């Protein structure tokens, strides 16, 4: 009698334990690339307060619970009867997906519409693969949204490398490396995560515009420059570079970031009606930002090319503004990256204080505003939110995908 199961091939039986372990590791690696490691997803869920995680393994148990006749597929009547169970309703509610929650509607027309969306093959029944694919798509979209928001907010703690050996605190070096790749002003042009809304191309255009402003400002304040060989003159020139180049560059960088990345317009696609409006606003603002930035980047690139050509022809006649240019860029880099980013946010000696009084008054409030010890603070917060006394495994169980 046919069992309906796929026969096991001889090649599978010939696999050794090492080869079988390699296949399992490859599958786990592919899953991590698509969705992320369990630790990273649990931390994302904790820091974004998304405890309504989508359990893609649990979706199979829900399918079996609804499939009362055990034939491997769900009919419209089976789903209508099955969603009345309390366990099924709780699972659907926790997904927070509007499309899937449509199964709980009493309106027959809306219920049938949701059934057709899950039935990707349009066969009139929902197979186990259709059900799993739909729930997994929701899980991937939720992880994508949480990761995008973490990247846009410059999150320091990602839960990477927790099982690897580290030079100090577990995961510190891996998180530091990931943060540098995504936020360094120059390395991010080549190593930024592809999921980052502020893409490498956008970062390159923004950097060209910043360099062009630095060039123009250096030329304009060239007449105010004093002799670099004296202490007084060097301090005077450095103050000029900070006031006219460094601080405006920091402001310009933030403006370009918000203009191109649109962090306030990011949203999770859950099947809501207003998501069409959200998507249109996001696309329109992104298009508008690029219409403004890309021509400016081309003009800036041309200005830089002309300035470099003139400097190459007669370096001694244009050395003054070149020194101001370099001084302004170096001050901006040292102030924004090693000092405010790495030394402050990734320091382990002086972590941030979570107490309300300390955050609002005195030096601790300024320390908190500067983000000092942000990595340690986010690590402590994620651990406190993800682990509870009742279930020590909750840290890794929010997203069982």
From TrEMBL:
**So which residues are the signal peptide here?**
none
**PROSITE patterns from the xrefs?**
EF_HAND_1 (PS00018), EF_HAND_2 (PS50222)
An example of a GO molecular function for this protein is: calcium ion binding
Q: Which residues form the EF-hand domain?
A: 54-89, 106-141
Coiled-coil segments, which residues? none
Parts of the chain that traverse the membrane: 242-267, 288-309, 321-340
* Organism domain of life: Eukaryota
Record-linked Pfam families: EF-hand_5
Q: Which SMART domains match?
A: EFh
* Name this polypeptide is given: EF-hand domain-containing protein
């Amino acid at each position: 009698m046919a069992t309906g199961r796929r026969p096991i091939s001889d090649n599978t039986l010939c696999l050794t334990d090492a080869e079988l372990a390699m296949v399992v590791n490859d599958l786990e690696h592919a899953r991590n690339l698509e969705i992320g490691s369990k630790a990273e997803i649990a931390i994302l869920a904790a820091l974004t307060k998304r405890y309504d995680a989508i359990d893609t393994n649990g979706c199979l148990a829900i399918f079996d619970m609804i499939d009362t006749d055990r034939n491997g597929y769900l009919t419209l009547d089976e789903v209508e009867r099955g969603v009345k169970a309390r366990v099924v309703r709780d699972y659907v509610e926790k997904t927070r997906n509007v499309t899937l929650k449509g199964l709980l509607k009493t309106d027959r027309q809306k219920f049938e519409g949701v059934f057709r969306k899950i039935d990707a093959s349009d066969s009139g029944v929902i197979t186990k693969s259709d059900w799993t694919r739909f729930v997994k798509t929701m899980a991937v979209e939720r992880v994508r949204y949480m990761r995008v928001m973490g990247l846009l907010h410059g999150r320091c703690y990602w839960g990477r490398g927790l099982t690897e050996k580290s030079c100090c605190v577990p995961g510190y070096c891996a998180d530091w490396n990931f943060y540098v790749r995504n936020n360094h002003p120059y390395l991010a042009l080549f190593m930024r995560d592809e999921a980052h809304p502020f893409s490498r191309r956008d970062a390159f255009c923004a950097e060209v515009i910043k360099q062009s402003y630095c060039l123009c400002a250096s030329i304009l304040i060239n007449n105010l420059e004093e002799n670099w060989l004296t202490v007084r003159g060097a301090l005077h020139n450095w103050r000029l570079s900070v006031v006219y180049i460094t601080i405006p560059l920091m402001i310009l960088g933030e403006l370009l970031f918000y203009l191109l990345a649109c962090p306030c317009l990011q949203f999770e696609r859950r099947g809501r009606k207003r998501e069409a409006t959200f998507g249109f606003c996001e696309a329109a603002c992104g298009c508008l930002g690029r219409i403004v930035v890309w021509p400016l980047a081309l003009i800036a690139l041309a200005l830089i090319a002309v300035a470099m050509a003139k400097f190459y022809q007669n370096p001694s006649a244009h050395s003054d503004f070149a020194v101001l240019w370099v001084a302004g860029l170096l001050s901006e880099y040292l102030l924004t990256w090693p000092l405010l980013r790495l030394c402050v946010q990734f320091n382990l000696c002086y972590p941030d204080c979570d107490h309300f009084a300390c955050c609002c008054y005195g030096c601790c409030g300024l320390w908190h505003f500067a983000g000092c010890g942000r990595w340690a603070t986010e690590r402590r917060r994620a651990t406190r939110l993800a682990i509870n006394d009742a279930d020590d495994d909750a840290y890794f169980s929010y997203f069982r995908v």
